[in-house]
Specification:
329 residues, alpha/beta, Rossmann fold, 2 domains, seven-stranded parallel β-sheet, three-stranded mixed β-sheet, 13 helices, binds nicotinamide-adenine-dinucleotide
Length: 329
């Protein structure tokens, strides 16, 4: 089978491509387990670390370009994992870019999938940014999304498209609303949630980290490994379980910024934790405040989605790979 991963060289897309290579099979929309013969990583540039697997090829271009999308998806795509996006802070700063990539790009991909036989499965990377104030203390599967950012609005509108294309039988779609994924290695990005990784990653690398939100700010989080496992699980769950509701809040864990820094102190010591400095950046703080921090994800648990144990385990997992020498026993 042919699998397309948009955003395939981004943070999560790259890990997803590698996980699919390792896994080797997926269930198609007709319910047959098939071996993955091709994975097309759609993005704007190649990975720094090559995939080193002959099944993976690149399709480099812009998902808001209909001709490019049509050629990348063609009529032989069995599964599409749609992760390419302009992230939250950037979509807020550049309204037109966010609409073009996050909304128009999603529609073009879904339209391109309509040519596939059997109908392609589509897994869409949505976000808890579809929720915004006013919110209950705990967001449940029944909470109405009321996004307060352009990014959240674009994600919600895309979810509705995935739902309607599925209802019409054009695709077999599933949208998963990701928590903030920590810890993201590398450089800070333009997401408003970038600080959640920065307050861990930079101190561990011996650098100061400026935190733009208050220590009491709660963050709903998940690890990259759990997010990738969730994409694959979303693909594999039979469509009968999704029924008419094709969007889902993924499981996660809640910690405040202060609790995250305490966990860093426990794992790596005072000197490392002392490298976080607070300097409130109101536009960022306002976006983050509009997001929910506590969820009851009963439906995802019932559907068997994976969950991290706690923030300490996410942190230790990151440190094992990126800062093993600093990890206290
Ligand atoms: N990482 C998180 O905390 C988080 C949380 C919630 C939702 N999500 C969603 O998960 C998905 C993956 O997130 P990520 O952290 O890997 O992001 P990322 O920024 O690392 O990856 C996104 C990729 O999309 C590509 N892209 C952007 N515009 C494009 C265009 N016009 N054409 C082709 N490719 C384009 C980028 O080059 C990038 O490689 C995104 O849809 C994001 O909105 C992520």
């Amino acid at each position: 089978m042919k699998v397309v991963v948009t955003g395939g060289t981004g943070f999560l897309g790259q890990r997803l491509v590698r996980a699919l290579c390792e896994r080797g099979t997926l269930t198609d929309s007709a319910g047959r387990e098939r071996s993955i013969e091709r994975i097309v990583a759609v993005d704007q540039g190649e990975c720094i670390e090559p995939f080193a697997d002959s099944r993976v090829t690149y399709a480099l271009g812009d998902i808001s370009d209909a001709a490019f999308v049509g050629a990348a998806v063609a009529d032989d795509t069995d599964s599409l994992f749609h992760l390419a996006a302009v992230v939250s802070g950037a979509a807020e700063r550049d309204f037109d870019l966010g609409m073009r990539v996050n909304l128009d790009g999603t529609r073009l991909l879904l339209e391109a999938c309509r040519r596939g036989k059997p109908v392609p499965k589509v897994v869409f990377a949505s976000s808890v940014a579809v929720f915004g104030q006013p919110l209950p203390a705990v967001v449940t599967d029944a909470t109405t999304p009321t996004p307060q950012t352009s990014y959240g609005t674009q994600k919600l509108a895309s979810e509705l498209l995935v739902n309607d294309f599925s209802r019409k039988g054009f695709v077999d779609g599933r949208s998963v609303r990701l928590p903030t994924i920590v810890v993201r290695p590398g450089k800070p990005n333009a997401a408003a949630s970038s600080f959640a990784s920065g307050i861990i990653r930079e101190p561990l690398a011996g650098e100061e980290s400026i935190c733009p939100v208050e220590p009491s700010t709660g963050v709903w989080m998940s690890s990259p490994g759990t997010a990738v496992a969730a994409f694959i699980h979303a693909h594999e769950v039979p469509k009968e379980l999704w029924a008419t509701v094709r969007s889902l809040n993924l499981p996660g864990i809640t910690a405040t910024v202060a609790e995250m820094i305490d966990a860093l102190r426990a794992a790596a010591g005072d000197a490392v934790a002392g490298r976080v400095r607070f300097q409130i950046d109101e536009p960022i703080a306002a976006i983050v405040r509009s997001w929910p921090a506590r969820f009851d994800t009963a439906r995802a648990t019932w559907m068997g989605f994976p969950q991290d144990a706690d923030f300490a385990s996410i942190l230790r997992d990151y440190m094992k790979h990126y800062a093993p020498a600093l990890l206290r026993k």
